[in-house]
Amino acid sequence: MENNQRVHVWISGRVQGVFFRMETQRKAKQIGITGWVRNIRDGRVEAVIEGPGDKVAQMLVWCGKGPALSRVTDVERVEEDYSGDFKEFSIV
Hints:
The protein is of the alpha+beta class. The protein has helices spanning about 20-30, 55-65; strands at about 5-15, 35-40, 45-50, 70-80, 90.
């Protein structure tokens, strides 16, 4: 059985209005993980990422960099219990 993980993240910096959600979805599909991403009112981006531990780790590294137009200053993360609720990675 694979070591599936679930991580809830909040990404700070210049992360809204720079295609962060769209590029996060694209990268998640490329890596092969599920979950969701959204903008939140305080200017951060929030996401839930689920999948095999190595793929989740790969996505977390990407979230720390973001797409070309972004400038990530912080990634807050909380590990949660894996649920397997998601069929794909969505923008919500």
